[in-house]
Sequence to fold (222 residues):
Amino acid sequence: MDGNGRWAKARRLPRVAGHRRGVQAAREVVRAAGDLGLEVLTLYAFSSENWRRPAEEISDLMGLLRRFIVDDIDELADAGVRLRVIGDYQAFQPDVVRLIDGAIARTASNGKTTLVIALNYGSHNELARGARLLAERVQRGEMAPSEITAETLSEALYTADLPPVDLLIRTSGERRLSNFLLWQTAYAELLFVDTLWPDFGKVELAAALQDFGRRERRFGGL
Ligand code: IPE
Ligand code: MG
Fold:
């Protein structure tokens, strides 16, 4: 979800106004994902590198996250959305962690759409953490080094029980992955769109899916 700041700047508004509109866009896209029958939608909301931003902006983003959970959890729960979080969100303030844990627990038995929010997420940290978890199991004698395979490493990631990424959309004209789901996007189709995130909605998501539908995927085969 990139381009909130530029959306605000173009309107001579403070960056937080762009983030606020970004939350609205996220809301619309989550709804659209349900309508369009998507099984899993993952939103990259806060990266492990976003701590480099000014304290005020981080605090604005945390405030918006709090508000999103409080305001939207009922609708999400009613719509059959299961909430998941990937990333080290335990590093957030205790009240935010409690809100997130509550929302996850409350929607745990839903099954229509899974909404994954990446919070304090970075692929490198995730992979290092996975390697560490496996190393600890080896050290405890629970598994042999030869059992460290693509499969067991996959299972040691935050995304353990989620399918691999089919389509990755990056908004705002940037053409980078920025440490997002590097392992899980091995065979993902990549789509880079110029639309700034606050302007991304149902129409743009449907267009992205149409584009995806035209791609020929061979997964290394013929
Ligand atoms: C949103 O867009 C990214 C989040 C942290 C949610 P940006 O804040 O990166 O917007 P730009 O890149 O400055 O336009
Ligand atoms: Mg950006």
